[in-house]
Amino acid sequence: MDTAAPTRTGSAPGTDIRPDTEPATEPDTDPDTAAPTEPDTGERVIATLDELCELVRGPWTVYLRYSSGFEADSGGTSRDGESGLDLPGLSVNPLTPEQWWTRPLTDWLARQVCQYRHLAEEEEERFPWVLRGRCVGRGPDSEPLLTDVVPLGRLHDDLLQEAGRVYDERFDTGNRP
Length: 177
What we know:
Elements: E1 45-46, H1 49-56, E2 63-67, H2 70-73, E3 90-91, E4 93-94, H3 105-115, H4 117-122, E5 127-138, E6 144-155, H5 157-170
Parallel strand pairs: 1-6
Antiparallel strand pairs: 2-4, 2-5, 3-6, 5-6
Helix pairs in contact: 1-3, 3-5
């Protein structure tokens, strides 16, 4: 397992945090604002936290979404349940850690995966999947809202169980501010 989160550069408020390096395949393109070139259907299955760590260490800012998947979400946006307003993108949870995070990357990922696991438990059609896209704003809970979404894969149940164990072992889950 890893020992530290990847180093990230800061960015202006309301924008994503990107890795220090740009992707080798597209050196003249900002990876978080580039339009998707070859979207897949998110068929990849990510089975362990280590696999998820490798994906997050890549050249893109990576997010997590609990829903019925890419096909169901493609072309759509999220809706704020309290106000009834349509949001300008899909609401997501960041998997790329913030610059201030100094604990292991696996801790960050376990926490992020577990924060919204109740969504999958409440509705059978919902499952966690990983994506990247262009951040176009923030939702009412300050969550990133994405368009131009590219699916990167879905999380396997084994990863969810592993994340739950890490989260329960390494965090004081009942302690609130």
